[in-house]
Amino acid sequence: MELRSLYREPERRTDVTFGALEFHDVFRIFRSGPAETVALRGLDLRIEPGELVALFGPSGSGKSTALHLAAGLEEASAGDVVVFGRSLARLGEAELAAYRAGDVALVFQSGNLWPDLSARENVLLGLRLAGRSDVRGAAERTLDEFDLQKRERQRAGSLSGGEQQRVAIAAAAAREAPLVLADEPTAELDARNEEVVLHALRRLRDDFGSTVVVVTHSPRVADAVDRVIEIRDGRVAA
């Protein structure tokens, strides 16, 4: 399936190969009055297109902050976040909104679904917000591919934690998002459901060609990905 992206043909030199996601000496500082909290301290990393990567580390290490910057939900205090060859800092408001709506998909710990809508309606709504055409066909195909046909009319809030995460991942696949960012997607799941979600994330990489970045502190998740980037004290440790 061909992916649609703002960043397919960056206006740069054609002899340069770009990563899917790059952090160049990125700092993120939160200020509250005179107090400062430095969440990222010169973070440098590069993730290649089509990789399934885990950002691994203890709570408070800066993993989720890095994910929020990659999603365009926060701005770096210094440094540059580059997605498929384009600096997010250089995007205008309209371009940034289009990026968040269509080119990056987020999967949170809680599944980030509308609980009163059915699984099918959640996928449809995500497609409409992304401006996709043929939303009904795309939703039906993706729900079928992720073995959610028997749950598609069930209210999302009544699904199990593993099923909710599968619906959220299916919605990302239906949107053909080139970059998928998952923040602790298995944190509240038992081992069986954790493996189900990991299988769905691997399908995003293998069958849909997405680059997938998973924030986690779970050793089982770290063992299941292509590469682990350990984050400590706001920078890459290993």
Task: Summarize the structure in words.
With 238 residues, the chain is α/β, with parallel strands linked by helices. Helix content is 33%, strand content 26%. It contains 7 helices and 10 strands. Strands 6-7-8-3-9-10 form a 6-stranded mixed β-sheet, sandwiched between helices. Strands 2-1-4-5 form a 4-stranded antiparallel β-sheet. Helix 3 packs parallel to helix 5, helix 4 packs across helix 5 and helix 5 packs parallel to helix 6.
| Biggest sheet strand line-up | 6-7-8-3-9-10
Calculate the mean pLDDT score and round it.
Answer: 86
Work out the helicity level: 25-40%
Order of helices and strands: EEEHEEHEHHHEHEHEE
**Amount of beta strand:** 25-35%
| Terminal Cα span | 34 Å
The counted number of beta strands is: 10
- Tally the helices: what do you get? 7
Task: List low-pLDDT spans.
Answer: 1-16
Shape: globular
CA-based gyration radius: 17 Å
The major beta sheet can be summarized as:
6 strands, mixed
Q: Would you tell me the structural class of the helices and strands?
A: alpha/beta
